[in-house]
Write a structure and sequence with these properties.
Bound molecules: NADPH dihydro-nicotinamide-adenine-dinucleotide phosphate
Order of helices and strands: EHEHEHEHEHEHHE
Number of helices: 7
Structural class: alpha/beta
CATH topology: Rossmann fold
Strand order of the largest sheet: 3-2-1-4-5-6-7
Shape: globular
Number of strands: 7
Helix content: 40-55%
Strand content: 5-15%
């Protein structure tokens, strides 16, 4: 309990993995947490019941639905944009509609949600977007669309930090390396290859990412904005 007591927090994409760890962290700190889900209704309802938070279905690929969700949930003290996914495979073979959906979820939603949240955010508000170390380093073929989407968040945070800075609103990107979730299980077929790039030869835990998010959202990080915060066991080093 403590640092987030009384704060209103919206987590876009909170039903599973890193997002669920973030929901749990803010709820444990006494915040009023609202989170979105899309495909995982059962997991979302269970998490809401466990944490006393509110789950709402919103497709992050739907720009207008994202903007409406942010507006209806506000004014927000803290916005976390976590929803995101990767598409693997030969760039020459990939379905352009699927790639565009990835850009809507991974890039358009973070931008429009951040701008909409800032309209009514009190001075000193916090926006945190989950990027990826792949925004800095992409050592494998087949993931260019994902790398592009996570690099785009860097420019967004740099730019919007200038727009929102006069009101003391900060915006930062957290860039995880391999984290043990459904999207990237610690015992998955790629684990040895991924660990070969790293100084710490293990996947991170969603809770470790939530700790960094919590710090960025808290009072000790008031001078931190427009920057990238990598938590990757030195995957990108
Ligand atoms: P998971 O696949 O385990 O969970 C993804 C979460 O995002 C789910 O709660 C899912 O909700 C939600 N989500 C996905 N698409 C949508 C959508 N269209 N609308 C609403 N919610 C959506 O992923 P992770 O926890 O691993 O990843 C979370 C974030 O962290 C992503 O942005 C990812 O790129 C990033 N990341 C992850 C890394 C990893 O190794 N795990 C490494 C670096 C970055 P639902 O199931 O209800 O649709």
């Amino acid at each position: 309990m403590g640092i987030s007591k009384g704060k209103t927090v919206l987590v876009l994409g909170g039903s599973r993995g890193i997002g669920a760890a973030i929901v749990r962290r803010f709820a444990a700190q006494g915040a009023q947490v609202i989170f979105t889900y899309f495909g995982s209704q059962e997991a979302a309802e269970a998490l809401a019941a466990e944490t006393g938070s509110t789950a709402v279905k919103t497709d992050s690929a739907d720009r207008d639905a994202v903007i409406a969700r942010v507006r209806e949930s506000g004014p927000l003290d803290i916005l976390i944009v976590n929803s995101g996914f990767a598409i693997f495979g030969d760039a020459l073979e990939q379905d352009p509609d699927e790639i565009d959906r990835l850009f809507r979820v991974n890039v358009h939603a973070p931008y429009h949600a951040s701008v909409e949240a800032a309209r009514n955010m009190p001075d000193g508000g916090r926006i945190i977007v989950i990027g990826s170390v792949n925004g800095d380093r992409m050592p494998l073929p087949g993931m260019a669309s994902y790398a592009l989407s996570k690099s785009a968040l860097q420019g967004m945070a740099r730019g919007l930090s200038r727009d929102f800075g006069p009101r003391g609103i900060t915006i930062n990107v957290v860039q995880p390396g391999p984290i043990d979730t459904d999207a990237n299980p610690a015992d998955g077929p790629m684990k040895d290859l991924m660990h070969s790039f790293m100084a710490l030869k293990r996947h991170g835990r969603p809770e470790e990412v939530a700790s960094m998010v919590s710090w960025l959202a808290g009072p000790e990080a008031g001078f931190v904005t427009g920057s990238m915060h990598t938590i990757d066991g030195a995957f990108g080093a």
